[in-house]
Every structure is written in structure tokens, then in C-alpha cells.
Amino acid sequence: MSQMPKIFIDGEYGTTGLGIRQRLETLPVQVCSIPVEQRHDMKVRLDMMAQVDLVVLCLPDDASRESVAAIQSLSGHRPKILDASTAFRTHPDWVYGFAELQYGHDEKIKAAPLVANPGCYSSGAIALLHPLVEAGIIAKDYPLTINAVSGYSGGGKQMIASYEVEKNAPPFMLYGLNLQHKHLPEIVHYAGLSREPIFVPSVGNFAQGMIVSIPLHMDTLSNDVDVSDITLCLKHHYETSKFVRFMKDKPAKLAGDMLAYTDQMELHVHTNDRKDMVVLTAIFDNLGKGASGAAIQNIRLMLGV
Length: 305
Ligand SMILES: NC(=O)C1=CN([C@@H]2O[C@H](COP(=O)(O)OP(=O)(O)OC[C@H]3O[C@@H](n4cnc5c(N)ncnc54)[C@H](OP(=O)(O)O)[C@@H]3O)[C@@H](O)[C@H]2O)C=CC1
Ligand SMILES: CC(=O)N[C@@H](CCC(=O)OP(=O)(O)O)C(=O)O
Prior knowledge:
Blueprint: E1 6-10, H1 15-24, E2 30-32, H2 42-49, E3 54-57, H3 61-72, E4 80-83, E5 95-96, H4 105-111, E6 114-116, H5 120-134, E7 145-151, H6 156-164, E8 172-174, H7 184-191, E9 198-204, E10 210-217, H8 227-237, E11 244-246, E12 265-271, E13 277-284, H9 288-303
Parallel strand pairs: 1-2, 1-3, 3-4, 4-6, 5-6, 7-9, 11-12
Antiparallel strand pairs: 7-10, 8-9, 10-13, 12-13
Helix pairs in contact: 1-9, 4-9, 5-7
The structure holds NADPH dihydro-nicotinamide-adenine-dinucleotide phosphate and ligand 2.
Ligand 2 binds near residues 119 and 159.
């Protein structure tokens, strides 16, 4: 029997790390761990990294950069790296871990030594925008607005504690109102935009789940585009996708936690009777297809399991 591939999760005791470790239980891989009290010890971590096939980084950005530099300083065997942070998502040496981006992108993830797991909001925005921009339905310089709501687990251990332990967090809040959210560079890059969207994220008093929504006035798109062009483009793009589904129905209500605790993403195109307004929506779990679920999809591709 051939040996199972070995994985080390650097940051395995954090929110994203735990989600990935749980999901790995059902895969034919060997998860190599270090004791929780040694989680900040670079020597212990690097010794482990030198022995595994894949390192999954679930750390803050600066700590991720430090781990990547340490791995790249190894003189012998170097593991593949999947990074969950924002640090390398638009770096030219890294492959963006959104397998559904375009035909053949999963093959790029399979072959890559360095893969960046997408941001949660970015996954929804790019899933909706990339096919439409590529098809010329939305112009690259279209003045987009992206609204989104996340479950509070998106804010990591600190935000979870403020909702569940300290109980001093608001039931709903807009944030990122300096309009420079950390996901904007990857959204611009992988949606193929030349103009930065206005992005308004928010958090609600529910643990897991996410809705990303993008309003469009049809008369501001090119003259010959109608709602059916949008629906057909998205339907066609995701026809064979296992995790991203185009939905034909147009529900008048969507709950933020509808797909919580799943690794699925559902896309809808909502319109009015006149068909002169559209809202594109992506619903998923910020910790599922928005984080650990996407990571598992990438791990399977990177290790061939
Ligand atoms: N789409 C995605 O893939 C998502 C990615 N993320 C990203 O994943 C990363 C982790 O986020 P999240 O799990 O929410 O964060 P958490 O705060 O829940 O967990 C971070 C973990 O990393 C540890 N850690 C922090 N600094 C260091 C360091 N210098 N060396 C070693 N270990 C360290 C922490 O230890 P301690 O307990 O001591 O703090 C903790 O165990 C972030 O970059 C975040 O942006 C998050 C959500 C979605
Ligand atoms: C609710 C909340 O605070 N969300 C985080 C995004 C989640 C996250 O950690 O982003 P990545 O997927 O890029 O790692 C934020 O807005 O910074």
C-alpha cells in the first residue's frame, strides 16, 4: 500500500485551521501536528514542514510571510504550500485557489507548488463577476458596487469571542467604510476589472454564512445585453461545477445562513418584472466555500487525493 501524503497545518488551532483539520478526517492523508503550546515556535514548525508533502498556512499575513520565507530557505525537500491568508493572493508566483475561475484552472492548482486560498467575500464576488466580465457583459471599467454580509466567524477568534463570550457586539454592522477592504485587490485582479468596485462588507449576529450581492441597472450595461445573457452566461460557466451552482429560481428573500455548514455556493440572478434591474447574489458559508471548504478542494487537487 502506498504511503498517505503528509500535511502540516501551521495555525491548526485557529478558526480556519480547525475547520480544515476537521474536514481532513475523511481524506486519505496523514495530518502531522505539533503540541498547542509550541504553535509559535518556528524551529519546531520548520522541522515538521521539512517532513511533509503539503503545508497549509492558517496564520495572520505577517506570520504567513515568515513561514513561507522559512520554507523557501530549506535546502532539501520543500513541501507544497497552500496559504489561507491575504499575503500572496495576487502574487505572480502563486496560483489563485479558485478552481472554478475558468476552464483548466483546476489543472493549474494541481501542478502548482504555491497556492493562495481565496478570500471569503472575494470568492462570491469573483464567482459572479469573472464569467460576466470575460464575456464582455459587464465592462472592465463598469462602476460596480458590491454589498456583502458575513457571519461573525469571519472575524476569527477575537470576533467570535465578542459575540459568544463577551456578548458586546452589535446585531448588525457595516464596516470597511474606509473603502479599502483587503479583498479588493484580488477581486479586481481575478474578476478582470480595471476599475475598483465600491465594496461595503457587514457582519451579522450569526456564526457562519455569507451573502455577496451586486446590483446592476441594465440600461448602464451595453445596449445589446439583456437579463437572459447574464443568466445563460452564469449557467453555462458553472454547468459542470460540483461546488458552485447556478440557481434558476429567483427567491424574494435570502437568509445569510442558508448554506451554513456546507461547502456549496449558490448563485442567483434576481430581476424585476420590467427586467431593467438585476441583483446578482452568491450565498455560501464564509468558513465553507469561503475558507476551509475551498482549502479542502485545493488540498485534494494539490495532493491528488
Ligand atoms: N478564505 C480563507 O481561506 C480564510 C482565511 N482566513 C485567513 O486565515 C488566517 C487565520 O485566520 P483565522 O483562522 O480566522 O485566525 P485565528 O485568530 O482564529 O487563528 C490564527 C491562529 O494562528 C496562530 N498564530 C498567530 N500568529 C502566529 C505566529 N506568528 N506564529 C504561529 N502561529 C500564530 C494563532 O495563535 P494564538 O492562539 O496564539 O493567537 C491562532 O492559533 C488569516 O490570515 C485569515 O485572514 C480566515 C478566514 C477565511
Ligand atoms: C467578518 C470579518 O471580519 N471578515 C474578515 C474577512 C474574513 C477573512 O478573514 O478574510 P480572508 O478570507 O481574506 O482571510 C474581514 O473583513 O477582514
